[in-house]
Amino acid sequence: MDKKYRDFLIAKRTVLLDINNRLVCGREELRGCESKAAILDTSKDVVNGVLIATLQEIKIFVEEAVTLCLAIVFGDEYKFELDYQVKRGRSEASMWLMRGSNKLDPKAEIGGGIIDIMSFALRLIMWVMSQPRTAPVFICDEPFRFVSRDHTSSLVDMRKEVCKTFGAQFIIVTHNDELTEGSGKYVRVSYTKGLSSVKEES
Asked: What is the CATH number of the domain that holds 165?
């Protein structure tokens, strides 16, 4: 065989061997990547499982706490429910209010007074779950403005129960004098002829 062709074939064989070697290495890397991908998928499933279990515990705590506040004020007519779902690797929660067998959307089907109580309870729960927690002092501006005055005594009971359970202190601005019942101290602010007067009462 002519030396020129022999050298050409040797060079091509060398290139072919190099390609084969790289192909083998590529296959090994692919198997390694597939193995890592399988581990990552398994890890993701484990993490999602732990997340769902944790969310379930949080769900029960939140549902029971909000339902308790609603029950103190309105009786056993309503029950608060959370619907947790994991979408695109993130947890999403929807809030519902159960009235008997009816599932109601708080944003569209519930009166302002009930939303006031839910909002109050959820703010308190967020504080309870926060780490680290701030001091247990809450400043609230008309937190129960849409709650009927017929439920004032129940609101006072709820506030007392929350203060006792969590050692919380509330500074509340309100036009409902009856809400001051059982308060350690309250300040009356009146406005007459362009002047504000402040009187501390107990």
From this structure: 3.40.50.300
Report the sign of the C-alpha dihedral through residues 113, 79, 74, 163, in that order. Answer: negative
Q: Which domain holds residue 149?
A: 135-202
pLDDT tens digits along 139-165: 999 999 999 999 999 999 998 888 888
Q: How far apart are CA 80 and CA 135, in angstroms?
A: 27
Token duo for residue 147: 């709650």
Between helix 152-166 and helix 112-129 the angle, nearest 10°, is 0
Report how many domains make up the chain.
1
Burial of 184 (0-12, 13-18, 19+ CB in 10 A): exposed
Q: What is the pLDDT of residues 34-62, one digit of tens each?
A: 777 777 777 677 666 766 777 778 888 88
End-to-end CA distance of the chain: 116
**Distances in Å between the alpha carbon of 190 and those of 103, 183, 193, 194, 199?**
43, 19, 10, 10, 9
